[in-house]
Amino acid sequence: MNLQQIVDDTWNTLADQRGCGTLATYIPALAEVDPNKFAIALATPDGAVHCAGDADEPFSIQSISKVFVLAQALERQGPALWDAVGREPSGDPFNSIVQLEREKGIPRNPFINSGAIVTTDRFIDDRGPEDAVTDLLQRLRRMARDDAVTIDERVARSESDAGARNRSLAFFIADFGRLLNPVEEVLSVYFRQCAFAMSCRQLAETSLFLASDGTDPVSGQVMCDPIRARRINALMLLCGHYDNSGQFAFEVGFPGKSGVGGGILASIPGKAAIAVWSPGLNRSGTSMLGAMALGRIARQTGWSVFSGESMRH
Ligand code: DON
């Protein structure tokens, strides 16, 4: 199978649809991004990375960061993390507050905003926000093998300035006594993790551990234990696209995580990590062209996690 050709064909086939979908205007800094950007990077465990389009241009990873923070919160807290956040799809938009009251401040899963606010709190633990951000930054730089990975402070400020909804979620959870750290400290980390600027190439390389039982196959660095990698993939499949997760599984069939910056990270266990980027979103905050690109790659490779060997061509 010629993966570079599949990546190139996918980019070329879809390129004339660049600009489809709508930008995430609720975070003002994200509304300024060029809607015609389009990138694909596919990394395999042997260290190869197949790229097309704007694959070396950094963009705001937004909710994709929730995957990395979940992995680290689990490493710090172990299974006790699951006392504070659930593992079920929510069926609601990413920033919904409706379930929180009925379910006593325990968010449905770690990928909706409320759930990520809790995992961020547990990731901070007792270190304070600055140490936690530094830890995450260093870790992502190491995993991406690139010290250029950075936080776009302008995006973080923009989101904080427009952060009434996330503040509401965090205060609501805090009211149930379910945050270890002060709300503003938790949010200061949350806004900065969402504002990490990474390219598709960096994201795909960083995420290979998900496809490789928790260990980066290139450096040998252990990110999390094998069962946790498997479970994070399960949660990505079921909850990674909020109220669009069923549709994404139906069309693509990869564990995936979207971000309102227009990136999608997909992990295909044993095979590859793929990052795509196109800023225009569907109604659930998933990149429209990005999902199309992943669907096409799934069909071309036969890699849908629901495919049998006979589907492969
Ligand atoms: O908290 C927010 O609303 C954003 N920083 C992240 C939301 C997001 O990326 C949803 N994913 N598609």
What is the topological layout?
Elements (H helix, E strand, L loop, with lengths): L2 H12 L24 E5 L5 E5 L5 E2 L4 H13 L20 H5 L10 H12 L4 H16 L5 E2 L1 H9 L2 H12 L7 H12 L1 E3 L1 H7 L1 H4 L14 H14 L5 H7 L4 E3 L4 E6 L3 E6 L10 H14 L12
Antiparallel strand pairs: 1-2, 1-8, 3-5, 4-5, 6-7, 7-8
Helix pairs in contact: 1-13, 2-4, 2-11, 4-7, 4-8, 5-8, 5-9, 6-8, 7-8
6-diazenyl-5-OXO-L-norleucine binds next to loops.
Structure description:
With 313 residues, this protein is an alpha+beta fold. The protein has a single domain, classed as Beta-lactamase. The chain has helices at 3-14, 65-77, 98-102, 113-124, 129-144, 153-161, 164-175, 183-194, 200-206, 208-211, 226-239, 245-251, 288-301; strands spanning 39-43, 49-53, 59-60, 150-151, 196-198, 256-258, 263-268, 272-277. Strands 2-1-8-7-6 form a 5-stranded antiparallel beta sheet. Strands 3-5-4 form a 3-stranded antiparallel beta sheet. Helix 4 packs across helix 7. The protein is globular. It starts with a helix and ends in a 12-residue tail after the last helix. The model has no long low-confidence stretch (mean pLDDT 96). The structure holds 6-diazenyl-5-OXO-L-norleucine.
Q: Give the percentage of residues in beta strands.
A: 5-15%
pLDDT average, as an integer? 96
Distance between the termini: 8 Å
Query: Class by helix and strand content?
Result: alpha+beta
Structural domains: how many = 1
Strand order of the largest sheet: 2-1-8-7-6
Number of DSSP strand runs: 8
Shape descriptor reads globular
Bound heterogens, unique: 6-diazenyl-5-OXO-L-norleucine
CATH superfamily: DD-peptidase/beta-lactamase superfamily
Task: List the uncertain runs.
Answer: none
The appropriate CATH architecture is 3-Layer(aba) Sandwich
Helix count equals 13
And the CATH topology?
Beta-lactamase
* Helix-strand topology string: HEEEHHHHEHHHEHHHHEEEH
Into which percent range does the helicity of residues fall?
A: 40-55%
